[in-house]
Amino acid sequence: MASPRSSTEPCHEQTITVAGETNRWTDLVQRAQWIRAAILGANDGLLSPASLMLGVGAANDERRSMILSGLAGAFAGACSMAVGEFVSVSTQRDIEKALKNDITANRDDVEKLEKMSPVIILDPDMPQGLSPVVKVMTDDVVTLVQDDDKENALPNPYKAASASALAFLCGSIVPLASAAFIEQHVMRVVVIAVASSVALLMFGCFGAYLGGSPVRVLAARVMLGGWIAMAITYGLLKPFDK
C-alpha cells in the first residue's frame, strides 16, 4: 500500500514546480507590459515632437513655430498613446474573460462526465466516484480557472493609459527644452538632433536592461530608427523653405 503513495509524491512536487514557473511567467508578462508601455511612450514622446520640430525648422526659421509644433505634437501624441493603450489593454482583458468563460464551461462538462462515467478505483487515496483520467482533467481545468481569476494578469487599462501619456510627455521634454533657449536657427536644429539621439540611446539601453535584451543591439536599433525618422521628416519639408 506504500507504493501508490510514494508514486504520487513526485507528481505533487512537479505540480508545485510547474505552479512556480507559471507564477514567474506571469510576473514576466506583467513587467513586459509596463516596460512596453513606458519605453514605447517615452520613445514616441521624444521622437514625434523632435521630428515635427525639425520638419518645421526645415521650412521656417522662427523658434516660436518650432516650439508650438513640438507642444502640439506632445499633447496630441500623449492623448493618442493613452487612447491606444486603453483600447489595447481593454481588448486583451475582454479576451481573457471570454477564455475564462470557456474554461468554466469545460469544467462543468468535466463534472458531468465525472458523474456519468464508470469508475475503477486504482488508488486507495483517490476519492470515490473519480476516475484517474477525469481527476487529471478536473485538476487541469480548476488550475486554469484559478489562474484566470487573477485580475492582475494584465495592467489596469486606466493605469496603462496614464502611464503611456505620462511617458510620452516626459519624452517630449527633451526636444522642447533643447529648442527653448537657443536663438540661432542652425544651432537649434543641431542641438535638437543631438539631444534626441542621446536620449534615444539612453531609452534603448534602459529598455534593453529591464527587458533582458542585448543592450547594444536594441540601443543601436532605437537610435538608428530615430535618425531615419528625423532625417525623413526634415528632408521632406526642406523644399518648403522660404
UniProtKB/TrEMBL annotation:
Membrane-protein topology: Multi-pass membrane protein
Annotated keywords: Ion transport, Iron, Iron transport, Membrane, Transmembrane, Transmembrane helix, Transport, Vacuole
Reactions catalysed: Fe(2+)(in) = Fe(2+)(out)
Primary location class: membrane
Ion transport among keywords: yes
UniProt-listed Pfam families: VIT1
Subcellular location field: Vacuole membrane
Transmembrane segments: 160-182, 189-212, 218-237
Function: Vacuolar Fe(2+) uptake transporter.
Family: Belongs to the CCC1 family.
Protein name per UniProt: Vacuolar iron transporter
UniProt organism field: Hibiscus sabdariffa (roselle)
